[in-house]
Backbone:
């Protein structure tokens, strides 16, 4: 009953991959270019925020560039502008390819994506202007969140229609994850917007709900979107079938069950059962993470040479390793001793950087490196930039982790010793945080290479295939027909 | 797992379970918290208007990305021993706050009871301390990584030979402005300092978070002296 009655695939109505690519070219490339622009803005803001920890007086005269505004603006630009937008593009392309269906709602989709960009712009510049809600994890001002929500709904409806129109009834693992993400986001976002901004709940309930939202945004929105790419590209690029569909289903449902419960740290001024339940769920999340890890390992095993051959696969494999490490890092929070040590230190920052820059950004970059040449039917404008991007971004992520993790443990153990003065503890971790800034600089350099390469490739494609050229040629023809010949 | 609607049904169930657990249940437990009577006043007290304006400055500039406002429990943190509060923070402390800015990372000290540590005093010493600290943290805390907030202050041109006015921020040494210019705090800076003065939460005893009993004076023993009444224990 779920599968709409479709005529069985025959030779004439089967669509080829290149026809599918052509049908979603405009929508997907539009999202990628928008994502690249936000990546540039988000990276610049992130860099400013990091440099401020080295020189606190850097740009201090401008109110909109103070640390407390730049940091959330950078995170919002990165999560909503880059990660969500790029992931939606990848998701749409996968839905079309896996469903063997042409995209037919291009105009609606493009309108939705324009509004999404408008919403992100309102959020990021609103935060810089001082209009933040003041809630960590949900900073978008009240004039930005409804725009984002409506824009998302338009795109989600198009994506679901595309899913419904599919000609391939068998669902692949990636489609489960995409459905999960498409379903979770509106629930998470509307609850947060309603209960934090428009009809705010009382007192610490705001903290509980924003913790639930921020965690859900990672585990039920960004994670499934990126895991869809992992499960799509890993078998495709290693040319081996996925090791076990049953194991994938097991991991998927456990992620869905435990994923929404994390996010409330030990030591918060809330009834103690809430962090207890939440950290237990974070510990149990280790099972779905390991299920993904084992499944992917057994799929690649024996085919490691492919990792070197395909740049896209290298990015995705790196992202997968980062995902597993972040899973272990949050699972360790289930230990009461460790979670009181890491409380209010840079541990969360390290986790967030590894998740966003290591897992999400690298996986999506890998997917984009594979998809764009198929959409534009030409190679990347600067192939050497791809390897450069991988090298510096991987080094940058590693540098951030090997500095922020020791810094957070040092701060945590220092704080546990009541005899040590706070400024003394802070001074002892500053060298780590300052070295970590070089990691951010490396990541930024990689992002610049990526953005330049993407824009260049798209511009070259436009210059060669711009529909307006034909249109111009047609409309100008009568007057200049003679001259043009 | 080839049926879209079945997957949706499963997701509906899993999503609803975490929503009930972490959104609905805490709301049922804490949603109706009311201020409690403490003698003639209630706790938490309402902030004065100036402090409320200051809270908006605190929010807009994202002070909470480096300063927490939560005193951890004695069993898992040293916050109380550090003098950041007499007791750990509980939900009751925040019921008047909108938004609640607990903070998640300490790149600066906790501010839950900063209004006690640097209380408003008649001489204005702590007011000047806070204003100087906001103007340039290096004045009061050399080596600090807190950014300076010069935009909360106004540079005023003085006419030739005119002395600094009473409103001017006292600055000396390398922080002093050039000749003929004085630095005057804007209303925003005053409001922010009054918000900091109003942060005194971790000092009031509550049923769920009593203040610790002060240690007995040296030489005191548990044995009551002969003939003494038990009144001291009341």
Residues:
């Amino acid at each position: 009953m779920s599968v709409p009655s479709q005529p069985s695939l025959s030779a004439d109505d089967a669509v080829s991959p290149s026809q599918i690519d052509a049908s979603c070219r405009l929508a997907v490339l539009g999202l990628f270019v928008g994502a690249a622009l936000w990546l540039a803005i988000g990276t610049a803001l992130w860099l400013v925020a990091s440099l401020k920890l080295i020189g606190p007086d850097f740009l201090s005269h401008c109110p909109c560039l103070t640390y407390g505004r730049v940091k959330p603006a950078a995170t919002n630009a990165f999560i909503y502008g880059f990660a969500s937008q790029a992931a939606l593009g990848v998701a749409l392309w996968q839905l079309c390819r896996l469903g063997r269906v042409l995209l037919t709602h291009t105009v609606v989709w493009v309108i939705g994506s324009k509004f999404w960009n408008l919403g992100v712009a309102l959020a990021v510049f609103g935060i810089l202007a001082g209009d933040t809600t003041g809630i960590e994890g949900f900073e978008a001002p009240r004039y930005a969140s409804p725009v984002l929500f409506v824009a998302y709904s338009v795109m989600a409806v198009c994506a679901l229609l595309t899913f419904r129109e599919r000609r391939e009834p068998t669902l692949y693992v990636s489609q489960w994850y995409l459905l999960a993400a498409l379903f979770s986001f509106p629930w998470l976002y509307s609850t947060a917007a309603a209960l934090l901004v428009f009809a705010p709940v009382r007192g610490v309930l705001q903290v509980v709900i924003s913790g639930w939202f921020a965690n859900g945004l990672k585990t039920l929105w960004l994670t499934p979107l990126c895991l869809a790419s992992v499960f799509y590209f890993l078998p495709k690029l290693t040319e081996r079938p996925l090791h076990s569909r049953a194991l994938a289903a097991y991991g998927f449902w456990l992620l869905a069950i435990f994923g929404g419960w994390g996010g409330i740290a030990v030591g918060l001024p809330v009834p103690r059962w809430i962090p207890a339940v939440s950290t237990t769920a974070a510990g149990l999340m280790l099972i779905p993470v390991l299920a993904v890890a084992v499944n992917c390992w057994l799929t690649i095993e024996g085919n490691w040479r492919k990792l070197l051959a395909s740049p896209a696969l290298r990015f995705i494999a790196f992202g997968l390793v980062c995902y597993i490490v972040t899973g272990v890092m949050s699972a360790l929070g289930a230990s009461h001793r460790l979670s009181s040590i890491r409380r209010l230190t840079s541990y969360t920052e390290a986790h967030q950087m590894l998740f966003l820059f290591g897992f999400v950004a690298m996986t999506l970059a890998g997917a984009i490196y594979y998809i764009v040449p198929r959409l534009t039917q030409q190679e990347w404008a600067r192939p050497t930039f791809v390897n450069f991007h991988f090298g510096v971004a991987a080094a940058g992520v590693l540098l951030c982790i090997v500095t922020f993790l020791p810094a957070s443990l040092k701060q945590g153990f220092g704080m546990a010793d009541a005899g040590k003065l706070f400024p003394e503890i802070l001074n002892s971790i500053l060298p780590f945080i300052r070295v970590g800034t070089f990691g951010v600089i490396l990541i930024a350099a990689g992002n610049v290479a990526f953005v330049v390469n993407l824009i260049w490739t798209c511009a070259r494609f436009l210059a060669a295939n711009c529909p307006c050229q034909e249109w111009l040629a047609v409309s100008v023809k009568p007057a200049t027909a003679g001259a043009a010949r | 797992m080839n049926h879209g609607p079945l997957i949706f049904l499963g997701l509906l169930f899993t999503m609803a379970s975490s929503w009930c657990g972490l959104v609905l249940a805490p709301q049922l437990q804490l949603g109706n918290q009311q201020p409690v009577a403490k003698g003639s006043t209630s706790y938490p007290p309402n902030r004065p208007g100036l402090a409320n304006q200051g809270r908006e400055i605190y929010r807009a500039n994202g002070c909470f990305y480096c300063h927490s406002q939560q005193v951890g429990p004695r069993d898992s943190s040293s916050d109380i021993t550090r003098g950041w509060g007499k007791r750990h923070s509980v939900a009751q402390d925040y019921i008047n706050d909108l938004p609640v800015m607990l903070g998640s990372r300490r790149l600066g000290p906790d501010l839950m009871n900063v209004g006690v540590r640097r209380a408003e005093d008649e001489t204005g010493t702590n007011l000047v301390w806070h204003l100087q600290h906001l103007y340039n943290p290096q004045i009061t805390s050399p080596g600090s990584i807190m950014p300076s907030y010069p935009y909360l202050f106004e540079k005023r041109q003085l006419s030739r030979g005119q002395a600094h006015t009473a409103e001017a921020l006292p600055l000396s040494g390398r922080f002093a402005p050039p000749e003929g210019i004085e630095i005057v705090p804007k209303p925003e800076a005053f409001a922010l300092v009054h918000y900091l003065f109003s942060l005194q939460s971790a000092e009031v005893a509550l049923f769920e978070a009593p203040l610790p009993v002060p240690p007995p004076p040296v030489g005191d023993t548990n044995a009551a002296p002969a003939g003494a009444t038990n009144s001291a224990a009341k």
